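In the current project phase, work has continued on tokenised descriptions of protein folds. One protein thus recorded appears below exactly as we store it.

——
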Amino acid sequence: MEQSPRSNEREASPKTYYTKKLRKLVGEQHPSIQINDSAYTVASELLGQAYERYGRVDTSEYKAYHNDTHGYDVIDRSLKILAVFDASVPEKIHLHDYELLLIAAAGHDSWFNKDHDSELSDEEASARLTAELMKQFGYPELDTVKVNNAIIATTTEHSEHGIVQSRLHERTPSPISLALAMGDINATTMEGTSRIISDIPTLLAETQKLELNASLPLKITQLLLLQQSFASDRLSTIHDDLRHFFNEDETRAIQTELRNNYRKRGRELLSLTEYISNHSEEIQARLHELLTTPTTVGTYSIIELVQGALKHILTSRTHKS
């Protein structure tokens, strides 16, 4: 498929591309926040490295989901979460927190050690890489420790309660850590249907080769059901996560602000998860119809075909219970 001018710019100079993109993001969505040039430099360097390592489709380490685009998306969501904290309990948030969060979010998935037989976890390796880069730009140890702790807090594992961030509560409570953790795995609760449509095929493609065959609709449906369960779990744990970092009055204030900002998306997500749960067989049958080998497969990637099919099914659904 022909590349857009933006993707060509990203390929030619990913660091320059992300420097401009990050400045635009902060300038448009958080105009009152001043972030030092060094933070933009570190963050764009981390995203550029992530693109070179995991974002190039033609490389052996390519990751369809956990690449530079995911890093940028987490920056966007994490800064929005921190802004909610700031609006609710301004005495707990400092302007410098935004700068450190920008760096932590950019670096939180910058290295995957399981691909290199290392004893460090992916998050520990990403934290180390990010801290080393921060030191090169003169950041003091206190700042690198805060960023390190925030990245470690994004560690996930499977438990009887679903996928949980198992190390979120083990370090000194910090709004940076919580904002990053929430921005990392609350994409669907903040962005609703469009995020599920975007992420399902890339998550699937990261763990297995996507092929247009009879088993693909079943795999997509199974992942939809998993994401449906995951989204429900996330909604149920937000209060407890907030309560670890804030007192009860502060937690109520933050939850009120979150509802004000994301009520529409939350209702949309609840409706969507109910639909997926109750109509999984129908969804699988529609996917089978829409993903029968098309003549356009040479023009569009399978990921794009799956996204198009999911968009058709999930955005045109009737809200049946």
Q: What stands out?
A: Residues 225 and 276 are 7 Å apart (CA to CA).
